Amino acid sequence: MAQAIAKSGTEPHLLVVEDEEALVILLRYNLEREGYQVSVAMDGDDAIYMAEAIEPDLILLDWMLPGRSGLSICREIRAHKTLKKTPIIMVTARGEERDMIQGLKNGADDYVRKPFSPTELLARVEAVLRRSDPKRDMDQLEVGGLALDRNSVEVLWEDTPVALSLTELRLLEVMMERPNHACSRDFLITRVWGENDEVDFRTVDVNIRRLRQALTESGAPDFVRTVRGIGYALKDS
Ligand code: CA
């Protein structure tokens, strides 16, 4: 029953177009930690060449690049035969509203302003990917007879409602988005609580325990597996 989300095994491939090495390192670290595949182009010509080669799921495009501007690359991609639908997030140091509007008018899907926090960037990447790929924006997640409805915020096990707190529901949602994939406690904290210093591994364990309990109390099997030394995974059988 998990075929609707089977694609989640293929991690999205992001092309980062950025000439500042320190920023490339920071972006790569944060994006890879989130499970994205990352390729990097450091100037405009390379950007088009690499985009043609890898057909990325999303391009993070710096505005100020040597040679040609990110804006002109954005225009070229939008006019490109095979790449024109690729989502683009512009990264800009420019704060003026006029420039943002120009970016969006020229086909960027969103923008982030430097300096940005990794959390903000990841949220924007995820949102743009969701909008661009209907499979990522399913109202309903289903794994092995367990269904989560994002509109009604309801979880059903074979038509029996499973009573969950919002935190437990969010934990389940994150794991249902990537079944059979080990989610580290760090990853779960970032996705469920955000960058919150108050939350430690024990908080994750406690909420996982409650989630398991709620699932089994509603008659569902225990979908959650402990992955020793890492965290947790949701098994689809
Ligand atoms: Ca730059």
Explain briefly what this protein structure is:
The protein is of the alpha/beta class and 237 residues long. Helix content is 40%, strand content 21%.
Model description:
The protein is an alpha/beta fold and 237 residues long. The protein has two domains: 13-134, Response regulator (Rossmann fold, 3-Layer(aba) Sandwich), CATH 3.40.50.2300; 138-234, Winged helix-like DNA-binding domain superfamily/Winged helix DNA-binding domain (Arc Repressor Mutant, subunit A, Orthogonal Bundle), CATH 1.10.10.10. 40% of the residues lie in helices and 21% in strands. The protein has eight helices and twelve strands. It has helices at 21-33, 44-54, 70-78, 97-105, 118-132, 166-176, 185-193, 201-217, and strands spanning 13-17, 37-41, 58-62, 88-92, 110-113, 140-143, 146-149, 154-157, 160-162, 183-184, 224-227, 231-234. The strands form three sheets. Strands 2-1-3-4-5 form a five-stranded parallel beta sheet, sandwiched between helices. Strands 6-7-8-9 form a four-stranded antiparallel beta sheet, covered by helices on one side. Helix 2 packs parallel to helix 3 (70-78), helix 6 (166-176) crosses helix 7 (185-193) and helix 6 (166-176) crosses helix 8. 30% of the residues are buried.
